Please model this.
Amino acid sequence: MEEYFAAKAQLFTREHAQCAVIWCDDPYGQELASSVALGVSEVHRNDATEVTPSLLGTTFFGVSSWSRRHSLATSTSTTL
Model:
């Protein structure tokens, strides 16, 4: 799990993103949110609404720590 976390953390750099929306319901999410050098909007599962699962992943809306409503998606495929 530590290797996965380290690889994922590399995506949250200025090279790959301007800001970050991070799930903070577990210790890994909390650590990631506190360690990245980007502006971070924390999202929690209790904030997710309009959840739509599919074979390609899940889409949903979430209210972030910036009090903004985000349209978010998780993917089980790299082609999404």
